[in-house]
Amino acid sequence: GAGVSQSPSNKVTEKGKDVELRCDPISGHTALYWYRQSLGQGLEFLIYFQGNSAPDKSGLPSDRFSAERTGGSVSTLTIQRTQQEDSAVYLCASSLVGTQGGQFFGPGTRLTVL
Amino acid sequence: QKEVEQNSGPLSVPEGAIASLNCTYSDRGSQSFFWYRQYSGKSPELIMFIYSNGDKEDGRFTAQLNKASQYVSLLIRDSQPSDSATYLCAVRTLDDMRFGAGTRLTVKP
Question: How far apart are CA A73 and CA A23, in angstroms?
Fold first, then answer.
């Protein structure tokens, strides 16, 4: 596609439920990033993929959070047993490999945990 | 110590003035530098990048980089109300990319 796409755009769930967020990066971009942004706050780094591997998982806030990427393309971020503090906009970005690649962001998924 | 620091603002300038946004970073191994604009409720949009010391101009935007001082800035000339947004500085090393918390800019008509 022309840009990074994410689905769903909005997700409302009940506390304790599991949710799955999807990111489809720009074709040819091997690097993929997940961020979280709470209202009025900066970007919180969650996880980075290079191809299908995740060399940096340091940002995942707890073991309820996991992510995978298959085929070097689509990635899913899964949050198990959601909590109210998980409510935020989850942003995905992709870039070309290498130090000069700027990241291009998707429109985000707004997650609300009731 | 935060890796990428920005003044959170808000920075307010009158229409037509020059807006100056500043960013400092701690990792001397940083190799490329980016400015993103984020409108309220939207995702960040890449507007400028710079790799070498000096100035880089693109329309009304000028990015300035001083690696010795670990400082990068963004100048917006002839500021317009449509420039009102949060501006995020991002710094890339060999392994990752780190974002500042952003500076909120308001351009008043």
Answer: 9
Q: What is the DSSP letter of B16?
A: T
**Cβ contacts (< 8 Å) between B96 and chain A: which residues?**
45, 48, 56
Strands (DSSP E) contained in chain A are: 5-7, 10-13, 19-24, 31-37, 44-50, 53-56, 65-69, 75-79, 88-95, 104-105, 109-113
- Which candidate, A83, A105, A114, A101, places its Cα nearest to that of A37? A105
* Separation in Å, CA of A105 to nearest CA in chain B: 6
In whole angstroms, what is the distance from residue A29 CA to residue B82 CA? Answer: 30
Res B95: pLDDT: 67
| Whether B92 and A42 lie within 8 Å, measured CB to CB | no
- Contact yes or no for A100 and B45 at CB 8 A: no
Average predicted confidence (pLDDT) for chain A = 91
Measure the CA–CA gap between B31 and B88, rounded to whole angstroms: 17
Q: Is B31–A99 a contact, with Cβ atoms under 8 angstroms apart?
A: yes
A22 touches chain B (CB under 8 A): no
A100: confidence class by pLDDT, cuts 50, 70, 90: low
Give pLDDT tens digits for A57-89: 778 999 999 999 988 899 999 999 999 999 999
Which tokens sit at B71? 């400082």
